[in-house]
Amino acid sequence: MAREAKTRLPAMAGTAAKPDRGDLDGALRRNTVKKNVAAIHIGGKLTLLQRKLSNVLLLNAYDTLLSQNVHRIDARTLCLMIGYNSNDIDSLRDALRGLAETVAEWDMLDEKGRQEWGVSALLAHARLRDGVCDYAYSPALAEKLHDPRVFALINLDIQRRFTSGHGLALYENCYRFVRTGSTGWWPLEIFRRLMGVNDSDYYRSFKHLNAKIIKPAVAEVNRSSNILVEPEFKRLGRAVAEIRFKIRENPQLAMLEIDDGQGVRREPVYERLRAQGVSDRLARQWIAEHGAEAVADKLERMQAREGVRSPVGYLRAALSDERGGETSEPAPAPGPEARAAAARGRAAAAERDAEADRRAAVRAARVARFAAVAEVARRRNPTQRDADRRLFLSQIEDELEREDFRRHGWESALNARAIFAFWEEMQPGLFDELPEMPDETA
């Protein structure tokens, strides 16, 4: 029987982004994709994998939503886009089946101001054959998904960082309100539906809802995404009746390095910068802040000049020039002491850049490993999951580390090395396809 998502869905606006991958074709190479809010505000019990899968399938199909009935994507590319590093096709089948069994419902005004209600399965069909996934949307849902008046921004690079379906659901439902600063008040019944727990008597209790859904989801959004959310509650008598989320941009977005620099590193100008002695971190920062075109222009101006002694210094000055005009290279230091001091400064800057690059590599490797652990742990049945936790706890002697694991589970940063070693032993080869883990103590 199909799962029902009966939440009434307000029409809002935004834009939707996708990972910048130079090796992908068609819609997957575009910077943005418009996604209908009705498709985001699904109250069904979608798993994390199903939510990610839904976003990627829409991204792949968006350009031809109204002109093609069937859309196709390579199964390996599909797994790559959702950050799924497993060859477990059964899990992919289950996720597709879940989308086909989940019903979306919308209630909105049409272009003439008339009330329009509709219902549709998220996918009309899905099929895996010869390493290719083909799938289709119903005509009515495809029309809504492509409606330019009603869309919100979903960043696939960010969604890959999420390890829980509730966290991703909260992010999807909050991000479109980042410019207004608040979601507005939701009755708790609506919120339960958006989180997919409306059928559970356990979460009728606000105490349980807050402890098991709201607090963990808020923590993950604030830790993993480009927004910060803070819940507020409205009471009716002594009971909490409504909830809203205050939203602001995450000031640490640059530190999060959502795509770990992979998209920026594919820009042609990135290699040209590196050839001039610009560090990886600085090259990515300049391209992200100023755009590849502007950086390439400054680089060409520099290469057209003669006698530029410090390419990094010249480019830093040129890019920081607010007028964007040509910047002369700073005059050389007049004496040997000044030149020696400048050399020491450059060496220190290079060392800092190298350290920043090392830290970024460590962070990226940890994120990838935690995602792999979360996925393999998710596939275990409840009895196995309980046994896994007990076994790991029995191997931890330090009480502080034990407490951190009790609070954060397999996301415990304090136990990261031990967690990775534990799962490498449990699932040999789990991390073989991931980047090597740099020495964190270097």
Order of helices and strands: EHHEHHEEEEHHHEHHEEHHHHHHHHHH
Query: Structural class of the secondary elements?
Result: alpha+beta
Average pLDDT, all residues: 76
Note the beta-strand portion.
5-15%
Q: How are the strands ordered across the major sheet?
A: 1-3-4
CATH architecture of the largest domain: Orthogonal Bundle
Runs in which pLDDT lies below 50 for 5 or more consecutive residues are 1-23, 29-40, 254-260, 322-333
Instruction: Tell me, briefly, the overall form.
Output: globular
CATH fold annotation of the largest domain: Arc Repressor Mutant, subunit A
Report the span from N to C terminus: 55 Å
What about the largest sheet? 3 strands, mixed
Radius of gyration: 25 Å
As for the number of domains, it is: 4
Total E-strand runs: 9
